[in-house]
Amino acid sequence: MERMNGEPKALRNVLYWGLPVLAIGLIAIGWIAFSGSNPDLMPSPAAVWSRFIKTFTKPIAKTTLIGHAWASLKRVLLALMAAWAFGISFGILIGWNKKARAFFGSIFEVIRPIPPIAWIPIIIMWFGIGEFPKILLVFIGTFVPLVINTSTGIEMVDRINIQVGQIFGGNSSQILKDIVIPTALPSIFAGIRTSVSSGWTTVLAAEMLGANAGLGSLVTRGWQGSDLSLVMVAVITIAVIGALLSVILQKLEKVVCPWNH
Amino acid sequence: MEPLKKRMEVKKITKTFFGKKGYFTAIEEVSLDVYDGEFLVILGPGRCGKTVLLNIMSGLEEPTSGSVFYNGEEWKGLNPEIGMVFQKLALMPFKTVMENVELGLKFGGMDKGKRRELARYYIELVGLAGFENYYPKQLSGGMQQRVGIARAYAVNPKLLIMDEPFGKLDAQTRYQMQEDLLKIWEKERRTVIFVTNNIEEACYLGDRIILLSDCPAKVKEVYPMDLPRPRDMVSKEFLHLRTMISDNTDLSI
Ligand SMILES: Nc1ncnc2c1ncn2[C@@H]1O[C@H](COP(=O)(O)OP(=O)(O)OP(=O)(O)O)[C@@H](O)[C@H]1O
Ligand SMILES: [Mg+2]
User: Is residue A124 within 8 Å of A207, Cβ to Cβ?
Assistant: First the structure.
């Protein structure tokens, strides 16, 4: 597909650095042009920038932008830690143990297609709109992809790898720990990646429906107060943090699965 | 010359797989003996049930009928005295050469310092010193085979089964590996069952050759190989044996 040696190396470097910059540049130009001709629909970059500065000088709900970002992040991280602990263990259980799979597998097939935000009404009815229901919602949204990726990864481990474990005298838990789980690690990691991105979107959705802090609440506040610049500030912050999270995960994967690189 | 103690006896083993589209007999009524200390070669055409037979001998799979005797007693299930070099290699991609080689020692509960030392010895024995911290992916096919051999040797098995270990290597590497394997075997003598579909390789390595027929696998002939080692692959005796076996085989292998 790709001609690896087609162009000289220097040119290729320029291209791979230059193209993303070009893309961002085009978006910026489009943004400026659009906001110039439709100021009611889209605030200009300059307006967004000054709104951004204002979030620090004049905090919203007594919280600066950093505070709001941290509020969202904290919810996601708490939920993720719980989801990683439970989701991965549970995925391993139903991937490894046939009886557990027979029992829980069907339940999972039913729950699996429900998008996390569909739980919002039920969760709000049961638990109100405090911290816990938001964390719970993110937990639900991230638990499912974790379980599915982990259990599929475990199930797909080639039989021959398990035979190697048997021939070399491993008992069931040694084979699981030393062979099966590491073999499934790339797919467990795929689950972690999905969980982070879906957790990040779910927390924002939850916050948009009612919260006094968090980036999602800023979006709602800006929207309801016709403060489009604030909406843009929140949206860009959401995008930046989302991108940062995925970069961190990529680095982490290199540390956890060094043999893949 | 030949030691007479029987390490393993395979008695009338048949393996039939039952699937959706009926059944398929992979091996039929195979009986053979494995003598202590010998280098036994099992030679058979592709897809004729060699791996299935080995899996039954090592206890990974159960026969449909027949039985395996080990040291004179009937044996069922996994046999801890058997080591194996897998046809598909099955090295753990996430483990370094060192960690792959010490797998069996780790499972056996040996402490880290001791198993490192032992594993290092076998890594050196197969000529991979200096590659301890490489991942399998970073090694050539031949080097990966060596890791598989070191891993099997490291647990000090009484009976070592090698399933087409050189099947995927180019001719040059293959000759080199055959020679090295004999050197290792002479140094660390143990009973070896070596499976191949290459007649020349079988004649070069084996103390005895058991020739299997095509599907379903049956024992077609047993050839004792009295040529002294190292064998000259172009000597008259060697070529004569080779032709004799070749004329007796099913299909071209
Ligand atoms: N678990 C199984 N279920 C059904 N059929 C099987 C199973 N295992 C092996 N077979 C069949 O048995 C036959 C013999 O397989 P086997 O792998 O033992 O052959 P082989 O002689 O080792 O072949 P090769 O030279 O390719 O290594 C094949 O046709 C294979 O499809
Ligand atoms: Mg085979």
Answer: no
- pLDDT tens digits for A84-95? 999 999 999 999
Q: Cis omega before residue B230 (within 30°)?
A: yes
Query: Distance between alpha carbon B96 and the CA centroid of its chain, in Å?
Result: 23
Decide if pLDDT at A1 tops 50: no
Which residues of chain A have a CB within 8 Å of the CB of B95? Answer: 182, 259
B86 CA → ligand 2 middle, Å = 9
Sign of CA dihedral A111, A116, A118, A122: positive
In this model, does residue A2 exceed pLDDT 70?
no
**pTM for this entry:** 0.85
Cα A206 to Cα B154: distance, rounded to the nearest angstrom: 56
In chain B, domain spans: 37-63+73-247
Enumerate residues 6+ apart whose C-beta is below 8 A from A63: A71, A213
Residues of B in contact with A167 (CB under 8 A): 58, 60, 78, 82-84
Question: Which is nearest to A220 in space by CA: A229, A202, A207?
Answer: A207
Return the sign of the alpha-carbon dihedral for residues B232, B237, B240, B245: negative
Which residue has a Cα nearest atom 25 of ligand 1? B46
CB of residue B159 inside a 6 A radius of ligand 1: no
Q: How far apart are CA B132 and CA B99, in angstroms?
A: 8
**Token pair belonging to B80:** 């801890």
Both structure tokens of A175:
């084979």
Q: Which residues of B touch A258 (CB under 8 A)?
A: 135
State the count of interchain CB pairs (< 8 A) between A and B. Answer: 57
Beta bridge partners of B191: B159
If you ran DSSP here, which 8-state letter would residue A116 be given?
Answer: G
- CA distances for B127 relative to B28, B121, B130, B147, angstroms: 39, 10, 9, 9
Most B CBs within 10 Å, among A164, A179, A185, to test the B interface: A164
Question: pLDDT, tens digit, for every residue of B93-123?
Answer: 999 999 999 999 999 999 999 999 999 999 9
Query: Is any atom of ligand 1 closer than 6 Å to the C-beta of B17?
Result: yes
**Residue from B25, B47, B168 to probe ligand 1 pocket by mutation (most atoms less than 8 Å from CB):** B47
Q: Give the CATH class of B37-63+73-247.
A: alpha beta
**Cα–Cα distance measured from residue B174 to residue B183, given in angstroms and rounded to the nearest whole number:** 14
For residue A68, give the DSSP letter.
H
B95 to A182: CB separation less than 8 angstroms, yes or no: yes
Q: Amino acid letter at B132?
A: E
d(CA B117, CA A134): 53
